[in-house]
Task: inverse folding
């Protein structure tokens, strides 16, 4: 039977996350694109591509502590004091590195997306055709985000915090992902793997909306934990969008 839970990751703390008052709206709006600035997702990808590193040991400790705290307790029930205590630093030190909790949580989520992009950029090199890369991208995106203890856990335990930001932000989050996908497809087009007649903007839009729909709304037909089924879906329905490309099939 297909699994209907929105994520595999779970914890006692996350299951009680809805009792707090903090909405984390400033953080979640950062997933989209504000006028004149790059979105959280765009910055995460740029950092992964450029192999950017943070050499501040205290920042790393705080991010590690925040990751563990948020995985256990969720966003609403976590405080800067909790994170500072877990990191073994003073509250003042934590606020010197991060002006408020929203900024800290944004950095933790961004780091998780960067880690996904780091792995994606490695994995994608193993695919030999554009069709294989589309399949790999579709499967890895769905499964990596669902299985991520932080992102997947928040989608499962605090959907009223995370999911509305993805669908009620004027389309900014979807637009960010669409631009990334379109950029990958344009690279394939320049390499001659996709015909110039393919509208990569529309194809990227359709691929993005399909993927986000699976993430946001559990399916009773397609089991997102079944890698082979996901590959078959991508091969049958996504790759044909590029059927004019000489290497798409």
Result:
């Amino acid at each position: 039977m297909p699994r209907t839970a929105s994520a595999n990751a779970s914890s006692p703390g996350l299951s009680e996350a809805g009792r707090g008052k903090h909405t984390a709206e400033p953080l979640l709006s950062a997933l989209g694109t504000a006028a004149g600035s790059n979105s959280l997702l765009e910055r995460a990808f740029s950092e992964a591509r450029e192999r950017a590193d943070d050499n501040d040991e205290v920042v790393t400790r705080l991010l590690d502590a925040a990751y563990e705290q948020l995985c256990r307790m969720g966003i609403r029930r976590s405080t800067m004091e909790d994170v500072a205590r877990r990191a073994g630093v003073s509250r003042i030190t934590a606020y010197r590195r991060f002006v408020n909790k929203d900024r800290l949580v944004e950095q933790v989520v961004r780091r998780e997306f960067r880690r996904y992009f780091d792995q994606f950029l490695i994995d994608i090199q193993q695919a030999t055709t554009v069709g294989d890369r589309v399949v790999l991208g579709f499967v890895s995106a769905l499964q990596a985000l669902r299985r991520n203890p932080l992102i997947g856990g928040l989608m499962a335990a605090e959907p009223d915090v995370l999911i509305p930001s993805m669908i009620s932000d004027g389309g900014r989050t979807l637009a960010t992902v669409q631009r990334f996908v379109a950029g990958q497809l344009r690279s394939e087009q320049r390499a001659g793997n996709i015909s110039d007649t393919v509208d990569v903007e529309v194809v990227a839009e359709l691929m993005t909306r399909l993927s986000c729909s699976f993430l946001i709304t559990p399916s009773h037909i397609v089991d997102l934990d079944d890698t082979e089924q996901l590959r078959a879906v991508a091969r049958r329905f996504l790759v044909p969008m590029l059927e004019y490309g000489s290497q798409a099939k």
Summary: Confidence is low (pLDDT under 50) at residues 1-36. Residues 28 and 120 are 23 Å apart (CA to CA). Residues 101-123 form the longest helix (23 residues). The chain has one domain: 12-242.
